[in-house]
Fold each of these.
Amino acid sequence: MPETRPRLLLLDGHSLAYRAFFALPVDNFSTATGQNTNAVYGFTSMLVNVLRDEQPTHVAVAFDVSRQTFRLAEYSEYKAKRNKTPTEFSSQLPLIERVLTAFSIPFLKAEGYEADDIIATLVTQALADQTADMEVLILTGDRDSLQLVTERSTVLYPMRGVSDLARMTPTAVEEKYGVPPHRYPELAAIVGETSDNLPGVPGVGPGFAAKWISTYDGLDNVIAHADEITGKKGEALREHLGDVIRNRRLNALVTDLDLAMRPSEMALQPWNREAALELFDELEFRGELKTRTIETLAGEEPMEEGGFELEGRILGGGEITAFLEGLGDQVAGLHVRGSWAAGSGAVDGVGLATADGQAGYVDLAGLTPDDESALAAWLADTTRPKILHDAKGPELALAAHGWRLAGVVSDTALTAYLAQPDQRSYDLADLTLRYLRRELKGEGDTDQGALFDDGADVASTAMLYARAVVDLSTALEGELDRAGGSQLLTEVELPLVHLLASMEETGIAVDLDHLTSLEQHFGDEVRNAAEEAFAVIGKEINLGSPKQLQVVLFDELGMPKTKRTKTGYTTDADALQGLYVKTEHPFLLHLLRHRDVSRLRQTIEGLLKTVQPDGRIHTTFNQMIAATGRLSSTEPNLQNIPVRTEEGRRIREAFVVGKSVDGIGFECLMTADYSQIEMRIMAHLSEDKLLIEAFKSGQDFHSITASRVFDVAPDDVTTEMRAKIKAMNYGLAYGLSAFGLSQQLGIEPGEARGLMDEYFETFGGIRDYLGGVVEEARRTGFTETIMGRRRYLPDLTSDNRMRREMAERMALNAPIQGSAADLIKVAMLHTQRAIEEQGLRSRMLLQVHDELVFEVAQGEREALEAVVRERMGGAADLAVPLDVSVGTGASWHEAAH
DNA sequence: TATGGTACGTA
DNA sequence: CGTACGTACCATAT
């Protein structure tokens, strides 16, 4: 370790907080309980940044006590012009002190003096101690402190807002003001200081003041030679000499206060992580500042005794049984080394660890038959509690080895997702750093660790990961519990992991012949469309290039300009349709045709690439992507297979019932979907009488709502009326605007506005509900689904209109989309449970948000349909019935209804 | 070779 | 100027 020079960081708490208070918008920074936090936030943010960037060894913060200072006693007008400190500000000072206490940073006050004086005293003491050889940094928004700048002490002065700091060294001060630091107060005395209500010499700015000070070598000589200065400015100086002398007396900082602490006692101490994070929760500081704080202060924490040593070892042949028995019913963290994708995987080894420090690593190579069976039994034992990080992949890998995984009582990735559903990823190392202030170095790292990897490193890394999972789950579950999300974890998301794994493992059969012939067909269509398009314009271009298209459409063919995009004018399908209506140019038709068929071909090619040797496609369901709680599907995405057009639906013909396995034959596919699930949830949440009645009537929903809005008999609802209300019904849950509605229906914005008014007049409960959702979310900072799934929307209080309105639409949508997601997840679990209880061999294959796809075992069609109707229909007890429609057929297309 | 923008498929 | 996703391609920067 190189000897580091001690570095003392002193902050002027009052001036920094005051700056933050005016730099940050109040309405963006306040808690659900109405406590303003902009000053605390800004101060904390600056503090953390400077701790991170400057790496001080000693820190302290100085505060003003009150306005009763010796300066006021001497000059009754001191700071008199300053507005009365707003309570919104002063109420935050105790919070800042709590932050400092949690960070273990001392703060000082001195009756009758200002923070500046405390800092001046400490700087003087620090610099006087020759043996300590201390370097001093002063973070303050008060320019008076510039007089403290020396070769060994630097002022960091916030430039704009709270982000940029100017580094005021002696050279910097001289460059900016034209005088050396110790003469700065002399300059200030001449110029005056408005914020302190210290008037200077009128008409004299810093330039002239600096010139005088250097010409006469100091303020004393300027005063002595005041008679020699000519002109208006000289006259003004002579008239205001008294003010100047008074100013100089008042802006001199006191350097000999009797303080409770000396600089040497201010060595940085370990922070109180728990208290700090709890306080952050209370202040509703999330995300970036929290992460930055943890990353910055983690290094200051004491290493636990013995660091993070695990009593771990590589378990040799014959040792595994005893080791597993030794774990007893303790919760074990598991880290599976291996790979997984497309519903399968492979295991290389398994790291295990418990909270008491026991750990072991099992290398799959070289297991004795006894080891194998002991491990298999332990893994499958529901009474042996286990925690994993993102268990689905490991479960697939273990399954591929023939091992069943059961008794998973928690999953750290899922817990983190439920606690903060808007994160992009839930990487174990990131979470460990954030929540446990521990650096997890691992196999994936590109430092020496990976290059010189040997068996021991792999094993110890795996054990370390396993241990991290155990510790992390404690921290995360605390956070989730405080947010009321524990039930959602244990009763929905956690059990769903196993079901999703089995759906991925099963996959869905495809008709390769059909798929390849479709690819052929659409390939021909693409070529035809392209040829015809080229024939019209007399040359060949890349029809997939928006840039080349723009040249042809707007320059060469001179068509009217469409809506602007960042890079030019849009050529999307809507715009091309619009252009065709105006120009009837045949090129547009061929272009649109080309778009359609190339997309279909591309979809098919994507699917073909993912067909596994078993003739099935095994998608991956991601449970931790969508902030609303929905699943997503990748490689390939089976949740966006075309269905709207006739040609698109031909792709669905390629998803078929599979061949028999293990002697069990399958007779067909079955699809079961909820109808109008989101509107039903809205009816439930809003308790709108009329809407609930509409659903209970069981009639065509869009027609019945249209008949209400237009006040006509259900039989007199025209197709036009129905179409308009259908668009409204669908748009409502997305935060549709009158403009958006007019756009979609091709009607005047005024008419759309009237339609919406009429709709909300009819369904007042909906209007009240939607307004209430946003209002409450703005107050609490989050929305909530029927099952308590939260989504945090800090932008609801943004002063950026775009961001705020975006957040408002998210707030409208999240409870509805999210509740629907809760509901179908419960339905999946209940359906699967019933399938198992009744010993059915049929299998759940896919989930497409409001639809489930099953493979029906021979002879089980009726039984499965009954199960599905009962379990999906009964997934929740809402104010309206849950309507489920079911269809069967040899392909996904035929099973649609 | 990675990234952003555009476009478009689903609920 | 309607939410939530994933994928593909082009164009641009590296």
Amino acid sequence: MTAPDAEVPAKSGPAPARDFIRQIVDEDNRVGKWGGRVHTRFPPEPNGYLHIGHAKSICLNFGLAKEFGGLCNLRFDDTNPAKEEVEYVDAIQEDVRWLGFSWDDRLFYASDYFEKLYAFAEQLIEKGLAYVDDLSQEEIRAYRGTLTEPGKDSPCRDRAPEENLDLFRRMRAGEFPDGAKVLRLKIDMQSPNVVLRDPVIYRIKHVEHHRTGNTWCIYPMYDYTHCISDALEGITHSICSLEFENNRPLYDWVLNQLPVPGHPQQIEFARLNLSYTVLSKRKLIQLVTEKVVSGWDDPRLPTLSGIRRRGYTPEAMRDFCERIGVSKADSQVDMALLEHCLREDLNARAKRLMGVLRPLKLVITNYPEGQAEDIHFPYHPEDASMGARQVPFSRELYVERDDFMEVPAKKWFRLAPGAEVRLRHAYYVTCTEVIKDPATGEVVELRCVHDPATKGGWSSDGRKVKGTIHWVSAAHALPAEVRLYDRLFTKENPTEGKGDFLDHINPHSLEVIENALIEPALADIPVGENVQFERLGYFCVDKDSTPQKRVFNRSVALKDSWAKAAR
RNA sequence: UGGGGCGUCGCCAAGUUGGUAAGGCACGGGGUUUUGGUCCCCGCAUUCGUGGGUUCGAGUCCUACCGCCCCAGCCA
């Protein structure tokens, strides 16, 4: 049902609001700035897994291309071999595909351009716009000045182009150790924008690159690489997040000095923040390596692989990305919106089945022992096309512990001594006896009588039963493990304030129910598929499932106005 | 303290020649209902960070403040 690799369907219905980026594209098209061309790119660094914040960017970039009949490239920004790995390259592609987007043959790597980048750097040197600096890292930092004081020129700043060229070539040849020299742009050490104070564009790193191997020992830096890569690919709109706003003058500066085929427009938007979680690669990687969670695909994580395993659908993710909008204001989106998007999607498409999380035995004393019957159960109350299955019913059932109250609260419609409820699609049943463990006082069994005339869950005498509960037949039910998830952090913004964000981990973010019981049909649901456990929530089959025991992840609970009222 | 951004309902977010505050989520109320689900109604900013000013009229223009975010990696 998650339809991996499915193309994003064309949008129907009202057009989404024109965010400021779409307005820029509209205007560009109006004046013919790019000849009607729209070409974007999604440029992840393969140094971690993608998260929901990336989904926002993916939907924006690929979505924009799709809407305007343009193209969107997938480009790995792999200029720092010390941090990047193929594992991430593979995972990222899987995630983008899962979201429903494709890049056809436009899979690129910044490392594809290393040779060109190098040649451009020599040109810059020849034009006297770049120089090799011998200063140490600490010295460069000291020379850079501070936010309020201008920097000062490096002693190497006025080296002759020929000398710079010679040095730069020897850097490439591997004549110097890591950190011995760097190539810097000659811009302005007094600039109020620190980014422009002769930025380093090449550093020496004798590190093997996941794609270029040991071909290089010097690697270009982001500011230099990104703009040129964009230009080489014919990108029209280079969309990135707000923190790169300071870098835009540098982006433009580099492209203005070089004979590149075009000059894309960099546009910055506010990255996503989600309540009760963290969305930074550094923190996510920390959660994984410090084993706070089980891995990159832990269902509690906001990584796309975690979200996918949790049971979120690409449709819900895209809807979410559309609903949050695009702007330049820092914001933190309420987790409730994400959950809403999933519920809305699954409400329409998920089969309804029954599972009991915390079983309480219920015996129907006036139902013949040894008898069983099949109950007709539609898969969806509003969509008959989804079909139906037979659910076995018998004298001994299990119902949800939470559906019984020995001393009912006011407005309680479910089981209680003497109360009549409907067993969904089966019979009306009245609780006649409550059996307790004499030692602990715990309720261990309910005795009930059923009304045979209410078969199917309906009475012809106009009798009103307000409560309907779900059930499984004791003899037919199958064991299952169910994992319930809650927010990973107890603080809305775990990063805020002093102290470590790990101090705010929610100790109850995972609850494993080992002894749940499910109806037989639930055993046939394939891994990854979403279903609704009636009255409980949407669940999906986890990959940890075995033929003996299915494992379900609760993706999101159903809205529960009773629980809300009780609170 | 230099530079770059941002501030419209609890959370997002429209608002584009200034003309009298969209929508979604959340929340509250009611109806329907064999999921206390769904669905359907209704309500929810005399107000746009604040103070001045221009104007017949300002969220939209001017001005002065205030608050928050980003930048001093040989990270991206």
Amino acid sequence: MSEPEKQFADFLRSKGLKFTPERREILRKIFATHEHFDVETLFEKLKKGGERISLATIYRLVPLLIESGMIRQATRCEGHVTYEHVFGHKLHYHLVCVRCGKIIEFRDEGIERLLMQVCDKYDFTVIDHRLGVRGICSACREE
Amino acid sequence: MSEPEKQFADFLRSKGLKFTPERREILRKIFATHEHFDVETLFEKLKKGGERISLATIYRLVPLLIESGMIRQATRCEGHVTYEHVFGHKLHYHLVCVRCGKIIEFRDEGIERLLMQVCDKYDFTVIDHRLGVRGICSACREE
DNA sequence: ATTTACCTGAGAATGATATTCAATTACACC
DNA sequence: GGTGTAATTGAATATCATTCTCAGGTAAAT
Ligand SMILES: [Mn+2]
Ligand SMILES: [Mn+2]
Ligand SMILES: [Zn+2]
Ligand SMILES: [Zn+2]
């Protein structure tokens, strides 16, 4: 059993919930790549892989995946919600090209530090934060 | 005519569009306060004010308000989209309390500077960016 | 074997947003 | 002040993602 599976199974057990075959398959598909994803494409992938797991099951699992720290909502730049891995990934931010959709991920400890100073100043307890930049990537600008 | 009205009227004219009474009322209601808003509450406010402007008209106006630089999408923390003023407001970021919904706005030039450095490094042309922190405000933490 | 709590797929329901359409309006030109 | 034209409107309808309902399943605990 892979690391995320172990962790997630533990999380479910600790809440009296079950690590069912459906849940395992969904989790595997999510961690099979490192890309951001949305529910619909995840569903399509599972279907292509021969699974017959319903959309409802995926939608029901998402809040548990978030609560357990497996995934989180990614920076929103489209009409629907997308997710990204948390487990096994350092905190990072995004540059999103509005023309081609490419996503550049980056870290910046300076920004993180300044941000924590601000939160201290306002006596604000951070749960989570996100930073996204919309713009045009260099490839798209050439044209 | 107030500043935002002038600007927006100019914008519309430059595109061969019209600054109708409905559009004026919507714009006025938006700039009557400094709060973030969503389409539904804006609609309710207009209705309470005696206006009978349809939801569709508001939804149709939003993209024009964004394109003209009057408003932009605010940091998303709920299921539906909210907006905030751009016109007359400096760039700022948000601390959002997930318990009481309070929003603390702040500026940080240090963060802005570091972010622009990152964008330079990736040769990325910024259109827009947003930074939001979810957490618990000090008042809510007391309890 | 019975109980109990949890899970599932299918489809219906919901809710935000977008679109259609027929009627109205604003503006430019006469 | 009329007229033509394109933009605009409200109401109704459609769309799309997400959530819920319901009628069976499952699996462990008693
Ligand atoms: Mn990412
Ligand atoms: Mn704001
Ligand atoms: Zn691009
Ligand atoms: Zn609070």
Amino acid sequence: MPKKQSGQTGAAVAALDYDVIHAGDCIEVMQSLPAESIDLIFADPPYNLQLKGELHRPDNSRVDAVDDAWDRFASFEAYDAFTRAWLTAARRLLKPDGAIWVIGSYHNVFRLGAALQDGGYWLLNDVIWRKSNPMPNFRGKRLTNAHETLIWAAKSEGSKYTFNYEAMKALNDGVQMRSDWTIPLCTGSERLKTATGEKAHPTQKPEALLHRVMVASTRPGDVVLDPFFGTGTTGAVAKRLRRRFIGIEREADYRAVAEARLAAIRPTDSEAVAVTTSKRAEPRVAFGVLVERGLLAAGETLVSMNGRHAARIRADGTLVASEVRGSIHQVGAALEGAPSCNGWTYWHFRRDGAIVPIDFLRQQIRAEMQE
Amino acid sequence: MPKKQSGQTGAAVAALDYDVIHAGDCIEVMQSLPAESIDLIFADPPYNLQLKGELHRPDNSRVDAVDDAWDRFASFEAYDAFTRAWLTAARRLLKPDGAIWVIGSYHNVFRLGAALQDGGYWLLNDVIWRKSNPMPNFRGKRLTNAHETLIWAAKSEGSKYTFNYEAMKALNDGVQMRSDWTIPLCTGSERLKTATGEKAHPTQKPEALLHRVMVASTRPGDVVLDPFFGTGTTGAVAKRLRRRFIGIEREADYRAVAEARLAAIRPTDSEAVAVTTSKRAEPRVAFGVLVERGLLAAGETLVSMNGRHAARIRADGTLVASEVRGSIHQVGAALEGAPSCNGWTYWHFRRDGAIVPIDFLRQQIRAEMQE
DNA sequence: GAGATCGCTGAATCCGCGA
DNA sequence: CTCGCGGATTCAGCGATCT
């Protein structure tokens, strides 16, 4: 049951340093921090992958796998002991209405989930990060491992955890946010590299994932702790969304990369942050408005995200494809054979040689509406 | 490690009754069946946890339900004991190369997964059943719980489990099947009803889900056991796909519904049940046979796929290139500086001005072998 | 310059038979 | 059991290079 925060705890909280990266073992550092001082914990612990030999792609290139010492454990027992120790230290830090997110793959997530339940946390959802561009299964021996699992849990059964229902609904184009999130891997310019061009961290998470986590379950000003800070994705998103963060990271190399990254982040305009997380949904924009305003022309062709489909815009803001017509969502869903489809992110248009999602135009409209 | 099946076990297997539904507690019934007689187990155990249903200890005594918050630990313990007991009985029944699927939600799946790992099973994939039409979260306090999780595991780490890679790939429109499957809930006419119009079983699974499970991981004629048979979805799909099934169900009402359901199922035409085979399953052809049969001549020159290398054929079916000699694979790998090389697709020969892969000739030989 | 092509890469428990 | 070796196996996205 949630307890009221004592005055003493409040004083200790005031002594907390925010927006810092602590060096050292996460369990020891957490034990040194004041109890009940944290609103949200995001934890991306070692997965204990247990990889054996090397793996090559069909073109004979070698897969650069995670073989770092920090991911090696002697046994499930050893991994469980580690897991339960850091989860215990973490729970002490959470405010009574605080919550935690942990992420893992099938190698470790069942042990994480059981440890959370055994440790007194109260599970709220398991969330599937559905990767739009996973690495294939090169030997054809199993299904393509195309997702990872996040577990969202409150500190206790009765906790009044934060959930920004309307913000999630708005993010999902007006319908309730589901427990499966389709988000691409962290690649391209977002992926941090060393001076020699290697990836700075083997398992850097996409900022879009953390963005959704924080928009869902924190408020501006909340304190977010990441005990496995790595190169600081949690801190970067927290700073941008005007949350405060505390990172803990053992490896000096990762901390250095994170410090540089964070220094370059500018917080989002505070009104934009407030809008995203308020109970008010973002102003709804009909697709037809884009046509009315001439941002897209009737007769123009949109292409699907994957490039496999195309459709023509009609003057009333509906689309026509081969034998299908309807809203941007309906046509996308029909062409993909999917139950639903967010047309705003599915459909793209060409502008100056680039392929741009139509959601880009919606954001433009919304910006105008706020003035 | 897989053990060889003993003669005694073989005899006992012959005594197994197929396509039957056993009445009774699944642990007791499983303990009465012969060891190493089952190819695949599909299990949809109680999701339980808050002990709304009944729970049994390994000795089958009924657990006196306690649902107070303070006793949550004891409840998890009881659920774990039950889980580990039936998983142990199930593992004994599996052939050395057998496998299991279990399904659960976030309430129980973490305990299932950990119990599988602790029990010696080897996890192959966790698979997300992504519901296209989930029930909304009416109170808006959490994310819409839009998926369930299946775990696919082999009996042991070294098992040569069945995976019909090509069939899955075909089912997914020519690209590898991923670990997330979008399938609607069981509704409409597929949903079994009682005489009074109520649903016959609270958690009836869609046949499409079982269809994919069986096409992925069984062959025609395989024996599929379902220890929580319910209204017989596993049996229905097994019968239709010409697999054999064994069901175990405690509740007489469910068994009655399942019996009627199964009686109406007609097996699919046996040719339609055959799945796409992979190249691995095709008869092996030595390269030398092509020379023996005069499809290629000793002394003839082969060129590499990329045109950068050439090699001469010797009478014994080996190749010679500059300073390299050996099999078609070895020479290809050496010339490319690659760890391995599939000589069948790497090497090409000239015929009527065209460049043809030598694999074309292997296919000719294989076609002759089938006659 | 625009479009096509090529190369690279991502948390991976990734082969199987015969000697 | 190990060892040797034949030979089967990849999707999406980004960025650089080529036409």
